[in-house]
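Standup notes
- HV: blocked on the assembly model, inputs below
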Amino acid sequence: MATLTLPKHSLPSLLPSQTRRNPFSQSLSIVSKSSQSQFFGLKFSFSSNLPVPSSTPAKTSIVAKVNKGQVPPSFTLKDQDGKTVSLSKFKGKPVVVYFYPADETPGCTKQACAFRDSYEKFKKAGAEVVGISGDDTSSHKAFAKKYKLPYTLLSDEGNKVRKEWGVPSDLFGTLPGRQTYVLDKKGEVQLVYNNQFQPEKHIDETLKLLQSL
Amino acid sequence: MAILPHHKYPLRSLEHVPTCHHLCWSRARLTCSATTTTSTKPRSSPDQLIIEPRLDRLVTTPSPLVTPTRSRNTSPLLNDPNLLSTWSHRAWVATGCTTVLISLAKSMVAAANSHIWLEPMLAGYIGYILSDLGSGVYHWGIDNYGDASTPIFGSQIEAFQGHHKWPWTITRRQFANNLHALARATTFIVLPIVMLCDDPTLQGFVGVCSGCIMFSQQFHAWAHGTKSKLPPPVVALQEAGVLVSRTQHSAHHRQPYNNNYCIVSGIWNEFLDKYKVFEALEMVLFFKLGVRPRSWSEPNSNWTEETETPSPVH
C-alpha cells in the first residue's frame, strides 16, 4: 500500500489538509495494460509486452484478467463492519462484484447510491451486491452510513484482489478502473462491464444481465 | 485572471431580496445524497442568480450571518470603496489595453507588409477560442484548490470564494477595478512578446487571446447582469454565443457547482462538462496527489450564495 503524502515544500497551501492514503498502488497500471478499458464508450486496448511470469510467479503481481465464462479467483476481505467475507459465501446465488476507485468521490458516490436505489431489484433477482475498493474498513463504514448503503463494501487494501482479477486502470494508469462483474449461481462470470465516467450505467447493465439469467 | 478580493468589507450587513428558489443553505454539492442519485444538471433559469441588493434596506447592525472575526464573511456594501476604481487600477488597465493594441497593430502592419492575412486572422480566431478554455481551466483551478494563503493565487482564490457568496457584487464593481489585475498580468506576459516578436500570426494569436483574457472579467460581469440593464449590443453578443451567456454562467453558481467554468465565450463549457474533463482531472489529482477539490465537498456558508440575510431592521 503506497502512502502518499504531499511534499509540503513544493505545494504548500494547495494541500490544506487533504492528504490521504492512495489506495491505488503503482504496480496496478502494469496489470491493467493487458486489459480493455472503456472511457465514454471508447475502448482503449493496451497491448502488453510484459514478460511471461517467470519461475517465481508468486513474487509478481501479473495475472490473467478475469473474463466472461471464467471462475474468478476467490478472495477473503473485511467488510465495513470489520467482518471477514469470502467470495465463496455467495455461492449458490448470483453476485454483483463492482470495483470502484474510492469512497467519497463523485462518480463512486453516484454509483453506490444507484446500487442502493435499485437494491430491491437486485434482491428480487436473488442477487447480492458487493463493492470493492482500496479504502479501509473505517472509510467504508462512514461511506455506507452516510449514504445508507444496504450492501457489503469490502476493503481491498493494497489492491490485491483488484490485481488478481485484472481490473484495468483508466487514463493511462492514472485512475483505478471502475469495473463490474456479474457471477452466476455457479460462480462463473457472465458479465464484465467497465465504464469510469458513467457510473450509473453499471446498474442498468448488471440488472439487464441478471434478468436474463 | 483575477477578481479583486471581496473580503475587505467593513462589518455590516445588507439585506438582499432573495431570488434564489433553491434551498440555498441545505443544498449539497455531491449530486448523490442519501435520497437521490441523479439530477446532476441544475435547473436552468437564466436570471436566477441575480440578487439585487435593496438600496433602501441598508442596515448598520451586524447580521446573524456575519462572523465578526472574519471580514470575508461580512456582506459587502453597495457603495463600498473596494468596488470603486482607483487611478492605479485605471493605469494598469490602460497599460494592458495599450499592450494588446500594440500586439494587434503589429500583427496588422506585418500582415499588410507581407500580404499574409489569412493566417493572422485564423490565429486570432484560435486565440479567441483558446482564451475561453484558458479562462475555464484557471477558474476551475482556483475555485477548487488552495486557499487564501496560497502563494501568488491566494487573493484570487479568496476572491472567487467571495464571488460565489456574493455574485451580484461583480455587477457593482467599476470597470478598472474589475479588470486591473488581469491587465497587470497581461502587461507582464504580453509586453515582452510584443517587443521581441514581429510575426503577424503570433501577434494575431497573442493579441486576441490576451485581449479576451483581460476582458474576461468584463464578460463575466455582463453574464451576471440582467437583460434590461445590459447594453443591447452586449445582450446580442451573449445571445449569439460570442460572449458567455447569462444562462450558461448562472448554472455555474448553482448546484452542483462543478460546471460552466469558462467565462469568455463559454464555447468550451458544453464539451468540458459533457465529457467530464474537470472531473477526470480532479480524480487524477486526487489519486496522484491526494488533494480533494472543493467541489466534492458539502458546501459551507463561505461558499454558497448568500441569499437570505435576516435583518432586524425593516
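- HV (later): unblocked. The CA atoms of residues 125 and 210 of chain A lie 7 Å apart. Chain A is about 25% helix and 20% strand.
- Next: hand off to the docking folks.
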